[in-house]
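Thread: Epoxyqueuosine reductase, structure

OP (GT): Posting the sequence first so everyone is looking at the same thing. Length is 306 residues per the record. Can we get the structure tokens written out before standup tomorrow? I want them in the notebook alongside the other entries.
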Amino acid sequence: MNFKERTHLIKTEAKRLGFLSCGISKAEFLEEEAPRLENWLERNMNGEMGYMENHFDKRLDPTKLVEGSKSVISVLLNYFPEEEQNPDSFKISKYAYGTDYHFVIKDKLKSLLHFIQDKIGDVHGRAFVDSAPVLDKAWAAKSGLGWIGKNSNLLTQQVGSFYFVAELIVDLELEYDTPVTDHCGTCTACIDACPTEAIVQPYVVDGSRCISYLTIELKDQIPSEFQGKLDGWMFGCDVCQDVCPWNRFSKPHREPLFDPHPDLLAFTKKDWQEITEDVFKKVFKKSAVKRTKLSGLKRNIDFLGK
């Protein structure tokens, strides 16, 4: 098989596995990202996410993660829900409605790798789902799956941004895609709507001000300066995606594992304020919300109620 045939085979299988799209780029040092990441870290925009400072070289060079790697196969998986929460409720980011995406995507990527090994031969690689020093969005953009927007999310025409980004890094040469152009234009909807003014300039998000950071990553008390600014979000935040014009094209996902527990959609603010450990475990049995534990969720709810 030549590069073109291999590539077509992989993309066809990715589609069959339920991925929204698949793009491929050459595994090489991310030159443009290096100064950008360095500057972001120097400005302490990672807040207490100290892990962002680790493995700087690996974040920029996939060959340091997978020996002999030649290609980065990037994939997108839609998570936009058919139904949303009760409007009289504290809010959870849509990505956390169903089963934790790490497990769902990892399984699909492992299936894709086994398929490649079965059809093409002795191929070595690793699956990455937002849990290793890989700049997922940069690779997806390099692979032509979208452009990084002013809210620092990957955006795609006709699809929007309500999808997960993950990749397989393999020691196999393939046909490479080219980046697409930026289609944000003069729009500043995400910058104008951010409740905590976390988008400090177009394409730069101060992570330490982001509601997702404050409600998930931050382990200490939420600083009082954000009182009244969390817009009802108790886990994550979708504001900059909800207002993005490209998301008017979002279509509901077809992944049963991402369907929410029925109680999650029906709960009112009162239900959340009275939630018990047993209910928390039942509603969020396999959810990413378990990351905050019940104590973290209660901290966020208390902060919203002040």
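GT: Both are above now. Quick notes for whoever picks this up: The chain has a mean pLDDT of 95. The radius of gyration is 20 Å.
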